[in-house]
Design a protein that fits this description.
Layout: H1 5-14, E1 21-28, H2 31-40, H3 43-51, H4 54-61, H5 68-79, H6 84-91, H7 95-108, H8 110-126, H9 145-173, E2 180-182, E3 191-197, H10 201-218, E4 227-232
Antiparallel strand pairs: 1-3, 1-4, 2-3
Helix pairs in contact: 2-3, 2-8, 2-9, 4-5, 5-6, 6-7, 8-9, 9-10
C-alpha cells in the first residue's frame, strides 16, 4: 500500500516507530520512466533521467508549465498507453492538442516509442507480454495494448525494487549491529518502508548505496538507479 491520500493521513496519525527505532522510506525516482529507458535502451530517455527531474523537464519543455505534478501525470499516462481523450482530460486541452503533445513527447524519446509499439505487436501475435528485466511476463487472454505495455514496464520496476530489497537485507545481515525490518503493509512495487535502529542514518545510506551498485551490476543496467530516501518517526516522512 502506498503512502497516499487517506492512507497517508491515517498512517501519519496512528503509526509511530517504537522507542529507539525509526522509519527509512525509500522509493525509486521516476521508476517507470527508468524501467522504460532500460527496456527500450533509449539513450535520450536515460540521459534525461540521469540529468535530474525528468517530470519537471517534460512539464517545462512540452507543457510550458512549472507544475511538476502535471508533467508526471502526463508522462505516466503516455507511458502506459492512455488515449487522446484521457490525456486531454488530464491536461485540460482538446484531443487534437493532446495528440500533438504525445507525438512531441515520443519524438524526444524515439527508441522508447518503438519499444512500446513492439510490446503491442508482440502481444497481438504471441498472446503474452514481452518480458521484464528478469524475464517475467504475463499471458494475455485477448489483445490488450495497455497491458502489453504496462506489464513489462511495471514488472521491471518491481524486479528492481525486489532486487534492491534483497541486497539491502543481505548487506544489513552482514552488519549484525544494524537490524532492518521491512514493513510489508507499507510496500509498493516501486518503494517501501523499513523500520531501523535510530541514529543509523549514515550506515543505512551506505548500505543503500552498496545495494544500488549491486543491482546496477547484477541486472546489467545501462545507468544506476536513483533513489528518494527519507528518515522519519512515521512511515510517510512528515
Amino acid at each position: 500500500m502506498a503512502c497516499q491520500s487517506i492512507e497517508k493521513a491515517l498512517l501519519n496519525e496512528f503509526v509511530r516507530a517504537p522507542v529507539g527505532r525509526t522509519f527509512l522510506q525509500v522509493d525509486i525516482v521516476a521508476a517507470d520512466v527508468f524501467s522504460l529507458g532500460c527496456l527500450s535502451e533509449d539513450a535520450q530517455l536515460l540521459s534525461a533521467y540521469a540529468r535530474g527531474d525528468v517530470y519537471a523537464t517534460v512539464s517545462r519543455e512540452l507543457l510550458q508549465s512549472d507544475n511538476r505534478s502535471l508533467g508526471k501525470h502526463f508522462f505516466q499516462l503516455a507511458i502506459h498507453g492512455a488515449g487522446d481523450s484521457g490525456l486531454a482530460a488530464a491536461l485540460g486541452v482538446d484531443a487534437a492538442e493532446a495528440s500533438r503533445l504525445r507525438q512531441n513527447l515520443w519524438e524526444l524519446f524515439p527508441a522508447a516509442e518503438r519499444y512500446r509499439q513492439r510490446c503491442v505487436d508482440y502481444g497481438n501475435v504471441n498472446w503474452r507480454t514481452l518480458p521484464s528485466i528478469t524475464g517475467w511476463y504475463r499471458h494475455l487472454a485477448r489483445p490488450n495494448p495497455a497491458l502489453a505495455i504496462n506489464a513489462p514496464v511495471a514488472g521491471s520496476t518491481a524486479d528492481l525494487f525486489r532486487g534492491l530489497t534483497t541486497r539491502l537485507t543481505q548487506a544489513a545481515e552482514g552488519r549484525r549491529s544494524c537490524q532492518i525490518v521491512l514493513l510489508p503493509v507499507l510496500s509498493a512495487y516501486d518503494g517501501g518502508t523499513w523500520e531501523v535502529e535510530h541514529g543509523r542514518d549514515a550506515l543505512l545510506f551506505e548500505l543503500l548505496d552498496e545495494a544500488v551498485d549491486s543491482v546496477t551490476r547484477d541486472f546489467q543496467l545501462p545507468a544506476p538507479l536513483r533513489l528518494r530516501r527519507r528518515i522519519s518517526s512515521n512511515p510517510c516522512g512528515s
